[in-house]
Predict the 3D structure of the following.
Amino acid sequence: MKKRPTLALHGGERLRTKPFPQWPPVPTEGERAALLEVLDSGVWGSRDGTRGVEFARRFAERHGVRFGVTVANATLGLFAALRAAGVRRGDEVIIPPYTFVATATAVLLAGAVPVFADIDSDSMLISPESIARRVTPKTSAVMPVHLGGAVADVDAIRAVIPPHVKIIEDAAQALGAALRDRPAGSLGDLAVFSFQSSKNITAGEGGIIVTDDEELHEAAWSVANVGRRRGGGWYEHPRVGWNLRLTEFQSALLIGQLERLDESNARRTRATHHLAALFGEKVPGARILPDPDSTTSHGRYLAVIRFEPAVFGGVTTQSLSEMLRAEGIPASAGYPLLHRDRAIRDEALSISPDAAAQDCPVAEAVCPLTVWLPQNVLLADESDLADITDAFAKIQAALGHTEGDGQP
Ligand SMILES: *Cc1c(COP(=O)(O)O)cnc(C)c1O
């Protein structure tokens, strides 16, 4: 009988000691020079700067739309997009429960109530059928989330909602992604991307609102610029707005990062395919979630792994990811489900005392069966990726099948 390995978490030898590629990435000479140029120019804010305008133009163009408004981060970007879309206090905004908390808290910041639609079991993206069941006369927007870089089917969503309901893509994880060859960011009425440290292009913090609609662009720009009118007076504030602006330092960095996006995403895609093949060969009962057919370009923010607990000794995603981290693999158990979040629920009730709670049985069934790997892992060399499946195989050997694997 083969001896079971001792896991690093239980005092055994750590499988991998070498770190995965660092993120944020090592800056290029060009990025370094661009940053210093802003410093020396004395124009650090976006009012008189050219970098913010330049970056917004290039970013919008890359994502298939005419307009972009840079903002301090995507949380505030989602908030501003909701305001620009006409979402008002007490409205309902439909979102998935399996997303970063900011999707929900941006809705709350706009004074609206997040209503949770369930997800699809295979893609883990918000389900259009479930959205259709959540629409009420109070619904003013839907915010699909392109989780991990897989693109929510905005076409199918559009088909099940009333024409006046706006779609705001939470595209924070979908830089360079596409649905049926149309870029994420061009699918809804507005879309918001993030440049926070973990995202596939980053300036430490930052975000952008994009749209192809001139009026929505004006509105979003105004909300992010203290209610000003473009071309209007400095103290002219025709609408209520806030200062949500990005600095020129960040825009200068982002111009450089945007140029690297397609190449680095192509590298992540090759790594994902390689890793999927390794799982197929080496780890029964675990696999990389395949891209949905309609996602013709994937944002590659996460590699989502679905596992069968029974072949890992009945382990939970929390302990599996803890074991993987101890072996030197930076895995995560992923998001807690937001429809169960007490703080969000209390805030929603303070806005609308009769707000209904939603059941999301599919999310509850499949989310505990997933483990994530962050995007920087996918920038590693092919030879390094084998450590990931070796770590899964080691854990499997250590914990064994719960259903009769010949062990006593
Ligand atoms: C990162 C992220 C956000 C928030 O972005 P910030 O720039 O950190 O505010 C919102 N939604 C999703 C899905 C994200 O991944």
Observations:
- The radius of gyration is 22 Å.
